[in-house]
Amino acid sequence: MSEPDELGRAIEAALFAAETPMTVGEIATAIGIRGGVATALTRVAASYAGRGINLVERGGRWHFQTAPDLAHLLRRTREEPRRLSRAGVETLAIIAYHEPVSRAEIEAIRGVQISKGTLDALMEAGWVRPAGRREVAGRPLTYATTPDFLTHFGLASRRDLPGIDDLRAAGLLDPVDLAMEAALTGREDDSEVAKTAGGD
Hints:
By secondary structure, the chain is an alpha+beta fold. The chain has three domains: 6-73, Winged helix-like DNA-binding domain superfamily/Winged helix DNA-binding domain (Arc Repressor Mutant, subunit A), CATH 1.10.10.10; 86-160, Arc Repressor Mutant, subunit A; 174-199. Helices cover 52% and strands 12% of the residues. The strands form two sheets. The protein has a three-stranded antiparallel β-sheet with strand order 3-5-4.
């Protein structure tokens, strides 16, 4: 690792002492320097590439983390997190892909009602937060993911969420999902054929 400059050293110190990931503005305030912090962060991150710890940006916030390929060495010393139920996983996925989304919208997408405990568990885990009320009749509360969600799943932003092709390649779509996708695709193809036939 190359010798860091004074600004880089100050940034390292601030992030090392921080209890939570920090934005560029929070780092600038902590070290008392306004200019050049974003550029220096990029330099420091590059200097840690390939080492045992990495400097990463998740959802606009920076922090040090164990290098992903070494995480298995530390798992035995960490408390196992509580596993989410299938309903919890599905609800979290819907929120991540559609946020901000209301409870009624989540239920419409899943096709079944969700218990209050499902959303409570996601908020307790720190992955979901209330995101304000929708300006429609009844003003339903909406939900969105948090920076902790991005950090936990190793995402820089929601743009890094896997697409349908990625999920299929990873074997994460169950037969019901695949059958539904095939049915919908077939229906769209039939619709296109009907449109073409009607136009002749």
